[in-house]
Amino acid sequence: MAINISTAISRETVSELLNENIVIQTNNLSLYYTPEKSALKNVNIQIPEKKVTAFIGPSGCGKSTLLRNFNRMNDLIPGIKIEGKILINGKNIYDPDVELEDLRKRVGMVFQKSNPFPMSIWENIAFGPKVNGLSNKKDIDEIVEESLRQADLWKEVKERLNESALDLSGGQQQRLCIARALANKPEIILMDEPASALDPISTGKIEETIDELRNNYTIVIVTHNMQQAARISDYTAFMMVGELVEFNDTNTLFTHPDKKLTEEYITGRFG
Amino acid sequence: MNQASKKFFKKGDPYVLLTSLGLLISLGMVLWLLAIVLVKGLGIFWPRELVQINLKGENVYLGELWNSGKEISENEFEQIVEEEKTQLKIGNRDLYGYDFIWISDKEIKTMTKPQNAAVFERSEYGNLYGFILQVNLNNEIVTDSSELFNEAEKGISLAHELKIKLDEIEEEYNTLLTPLNKIQREISLLKVNSDFLTDEEAKRLNLLKEEENKLTESINQPRIVLEEKISTLKERLNSFTVNVITANGDETLMQLKNVVRLYQPNEMGIFGKSIHYVQNLWEFLSGEPRESNTEGGVFPAIFGTVMMVILMSILVVPFGVLAAVYLNEYAKQGALTRIIRLSVNNLAGVPSIVFGIFGLGFFIYIVGGSIDQFFFSDKLPAPTFGTGGILWASLTLALLTLPVVVVATEEGILAVPKANKDGALALGATKWQMIKKVVLPNAMPGILTGLILAISRGAGEVAPLMITGVVKLAPDMPLDFNFPFFHLDRKFMHLGFHIYDVGFQSPNVEAAIPMVYSTALLLIAIVVFLNLLAIYLRNRLRKKYKSSSF
């Protein structure tokens, strides 16, 4: 696949990415909440398959906005305008023949604040398979167990699958949301600051879960916590005021950043 | 203003007092209302003792003490005098023409409670008060005074059994004649325009006439047998009579089949009176009304009220919820939706009689009239759906309560966390799946709040019902065992209208007053019950869908 070389990506990274299979690629992506207020400016990024990619940057830099574009959740915002292309597996997701529900099934999402439905644990996990047309109880049971195991929650909840998901602790709820996203068997999982509302122990558990998932899924994670990005991600993108400043493999970005701005941010001189 | 009083007002003590006073007054009024309705509504079922009053003149009265009070009037010297008076329910309307009299206390010589005074509750002409002289049980005459009461009671139950038997036989007789009546009806219809008959119709007429003759012949034998049975039964029934003498010596003969209940209140102990109380209450709740609704039960009205409220709920909730869902989830928010919201809110303030007029003009005349023309044209000009009925009344009330359901549902929908809606969409749910599985279940407590408000408003409305299908006495209930079981075209009775009718339209207003209180109490009880049911449901759902939080 041809790589669109832009200034945000260093030559070394480009050659590294050439060996990867690119799953998500944006071409000159710009986004406007109102005609005057742009949230993303000409973003070009390549996200490799079965790797963890982290987006970091100060608040309001557009990292969450970019993430939410990958499953078109931004479409819901009234008055929004999107320019450019987002290719997932080479297909522009804004093409008219792309089915929104199918896209969202393939691109799962975990939100900042855990949002289990007020139903039983089982029904929460079964929600995705059910809305996507699965009705055989036995098949769903299998999916529920598999998803909960992948999200490291099975042992804790297997005795009480029929109890309300709202009775779980905060960390468990967030892992339930991960399991719920996994139940659709997605290719890509988007995580929007999944641990920002959790205590350190729960955060650790979420990170462990992500670590176990990295071999099978492409994970894109937005985080405020630079240590977290350094710990769990393979690639990191640093964004500021809607622009992609630097995209590099995590190690390089945190040790020898190409850009001065990145260095200033990660060393805590601003932001 | 000095410092101290400034401080006093700043602290706000008088306003606190004012607010508490406001609460106290509203609470007090509600309690006062409930107390009056409870005491007057439940007290009526307690059997009152019979009092015999001998006046200083010749007159003797027997009846129930009902009321007492002072009358202020002018005497012939233009002086104002006060007079103590007593109201007595003397019954015996067929003899005296009125139920109640006021007696001046000055004229009373003696007041006694004769032990063997009896009350006959009759199916016509109200109560009869008097003393039993003689009982005739199918030509067996009882005059022994110690046996009279028991024998009379026995006679009443025997007469009731006979009456049930008679009803059964008459029913049988009617079913026997039904096919013949049907043919005769068709013949008479054809005969009406006999000058313009087509050949085919003339043929049919002849065929029908032949059939009529055949049928008449074939059912002749059983018909005569049944007719004989009916006449002997009627004769036997009429032979159960009782002779009663009233307090002032008038003797009257009464057929026991017309007596609903017989009791001697002055001989009853507290236990007997309690049993009588329960019987009376049960009759009120389960019986049919008698005596232009002033006596007997209100069951048809209870049934009509509850069925209308349920029908209304079934109609209003889906419409209200659908409208609210569209307004909130699908419609593009802007000036138009704001105007619609404003209009819906204002609709709740439109006087109910306006909805009644709309129900009459649109539902009954236009919709009902068209239904009649298309589906019931054989019965025209007698209307089927083109006249008031429970369906139209429920639809009118559904329209009336639609705004509260829409507003409450909207509030419920707005309270659904956006995170949950996003979560559903992110899992690949379509918007409709998201609404069905996340929004509606979460908004259910709000929807039920709307239902509660709708029930409270709908069950108490009378004005729009009066022109859309409520009647003072409905011969048939809207739900029975005859096909098709639900008769949505039928007129029905309603407790609210019953109160108005009995209290203000009754020919015997004084006798109807207790009925008004009891019915009012019942209406309150039913509305409270329906509300409690909805509140219970809502609380269960609330527990299930408590909002997600850490």
What does this structure look like?
Chain A has 271 residues and is an alpha/beta fold. Helices cover 36% and strands 24% of the residues of chain A. Chain A contains 11 helices and 10 strands. In chain A, β9 and β10 form a beta hairpin. The model of chain B has no long low-confidence stretch (mean pLDDT 85). In chain B, the strands form 3 sheets. In chain B, strands 6, 7, 8, 9, 10 and 11 form a 6-stranded antiparallel sheet that branches. In chain B, strands 4-3-2-1-5 form a 5-stranded antiparallel sheet, with no helix packed on it. Chain B has a two-stranded antiparallel sheet with strand order 12-13. Chain B contains 16 helices and 13 strands. With 550 residues, chain B is of the alpha+beta class. At the A-B interface, α3, α4 and α7 of A face α12 and α13 of B.
Q: So what's the CATH class of the domain at 302-549 in chain B?
A: Mainly Alpha
Regions of chain B with pLDDT < 50 over 5+ consecutive residues?
none
Question: Which class best fits the helix and strand makeup of chain A?
Answer: alpha/beta
Structural class of chain B: alpha+beta
CATH topology description of the domain at 302-549 in chain B: MetI-like fold
Main sheet specs of chain B: 6 strands, antiparallel
Query: How many beta strands in the DSSP annotation of chain A?
Result: 10
Give the amount of beta strand of chain A, in percent: 15-25%
Helix-residue proportion of chain B: 55-70%
CATH architecture of the domain at 302-549 in chain B: Orthogonal Bundle
Instruction: Count all strands of chain B and give the number.
Output: 13
The name of the CATH superfamily of the domain at 302-549 in chain B reads MetI-like
The pLDDT mean of chain B sits at 85
Tell me about the largest β-sheet of chain A.
Answer: 6 strands, mixed
Q: What is the strand arrangement across the widest sheet of chain A?
A: 6-7-8-3-9-10
User: Overall 3D geometry of chain B?
Assistant: flat
| Share of helical residues of chain A | 25-40%
Radius of gyration of chain B, in angstroms, nearest whole number = 32 Å
Mean pLDDT of chain A: 87
